[in-house]
Amino acid sequence: MTGGPPGDPGGEAPGEGVNGADAPWRQLVSSGHLEYDRVVFFSDAIFAIAITLLAFDFRVPAGTVSAARALRDAEPRLLGFVISFAVIGLFWLSHHWIFRHIDALDRPLMLINLLFLGTIAFLPYPTELMSVTSNQVPALVLYAAWVSLAGLVELAIWQYASRVPGLLTARIPAWVRRRFAVRILLVPVVFLLSIPVALTEPAVAPFTWLLAWVLGVVLRRVQPL
What we know:
single chain, mainly alpha, 2 domains, 2 strands, globular
């Protein structure tokens, strides 16, 4: 991260960056410097908070005398927690892999990343709605649509970083970029395809989401990175 305009510590000097003409807007923040690290640490914090919020409402009701009954009553919430923990975990793993290979950030990329983090931060709400309504169709559709949106925005991070010169490390070949884009796309495609299932067979829809994990394992074996 090099010099920059007054009041923008760690920015870049005019004329440098992705495109000299766009320097006031598209300034590079290089890997290994404070401004870059702040983006990564902030991203990890959002993931951690979202996962924490998934378990925030777990309470043993006052006056509970039967642990078995309490567990039965908590089953929808437990299932929602497990599903969303796995989903957020998959998104975090992809996000971690992406930022391992990003050498610099510009403002548009930071904004796309912020939008993605917004989708992650909101995910506990559709999770809770799905749990308390016992997998009613509107809740399942909202959940699947929201996870799909999050996956598409994460794909936008990778696609943008892949196409703008100077953001990705130069050692990543084009075939790796394409394969990883397919892996990111896997989650939103599976969840989008589950929406028609949720409309016709709501009890089956959550099980179709397992395809994201199964197909991911298959892709890693067939097309290793």
